[in-house]
Amino acid sequence: MQGCESVTQISHQAGESRDHTLDQFVEVRGARVRFAVSGAGVRDLVLLHGHHANHTWWHRVAPLLEPCWRITRLDFSGHGDSDHRDGYDGSLWAEEVRAVAEAAGVERPVLVGHSMGGRIALAAAAERPAGISGVITLDTALRPPGAAFRFGWHPERVPRVRATKAEALGQFRLAPDQPEPAEEILAAVAQASIRQVDGGWTWKYDQRGLPGMRREYVEERLAALPVPVCFIYAERSAIVGADTIAYLQSIPIAGGVEIVEMPGLHHHLILEDPVRCAELIDEHATRLFS
């Protein structure tokens, strides 16, 4: 089957946001994980957001894919509108992906993950490869043996509260820092990243921190991964450098691997250039399904 011509045909609409409220949930180990399903296609894509992010990072990419794909988006626990937990790990988030896929009636999807979402996609595929058609990662950091991760868990940390919504929105920044995308794109993401609490407004993500996914969840299982993988990375990324690319090139992934550079872009590439990202996702997902 050919790729989705609608991605190119409606690319001029990329500046038009749609309502992507997560209207469904599934309970996973005592926490409600929010998700939503959209799109007119019969083949499934599951879109997975990154660290401290939420499903709205995809709010300009998803509409471009919906004419030809069935799209499932979710907020991981500790993020967005899903519940917080007393602790997190990569295996748990991978379980959330499987639970959402089952609840949504997803069949043999391509898992598409940005940043940390790519690591979770790889972990989910490694644990249950039979139900996965392939994995696409976008600017996901994978580390060779001995490399350190910068995540941490601080159970004593108290959420920061801003007095007004305007103040909270004014504090919103992309991390790592990069040239900001169009104002209307960033505003939509910021609006979906805060919530009202006693005394003001705060971030939705769990501010106690989120522990990194240990190597045994991802890197140490990559070579045996039987599904095809496409690693897409941003040329000007602050987290994916030459060491990461060299490491990826050294791993003989059983299902096959393709490495694709997106020139001129930074880490938050799905906000920076949603049209180019949608075109690449469509192209490579179509190939993974063939």
TrEMBL record:
Molecular function, one GO term: monoacylglycerol lipase activity
Cellular component annotations (GO), alphabetically ordered: membrane
Record keywords, A-Z: Hydrolase
Taxonomic superkingdom: Bacteria
Domain AB hydrolase-1: 45-279
Gene3D superfamilies reported in the protein's UniProt record: alpha/beta hydrolase (3.40.50.1820)
UniProt protein name: Alpha/beta fold hydrolase
InterPro entries given in the database record: AB_hydrolase_1 (IPR000073), AB_hydrolase_fold (IPR029058), AB_hydrolase_sf (IPR050266)
Keyword Hydrolase: yes
BP GO terms, sorted: acylglycerol catabolic process
Species per Swiss-Prot/TrEMBL record: Aeromicrobium yanjiei
Signal peptide: none
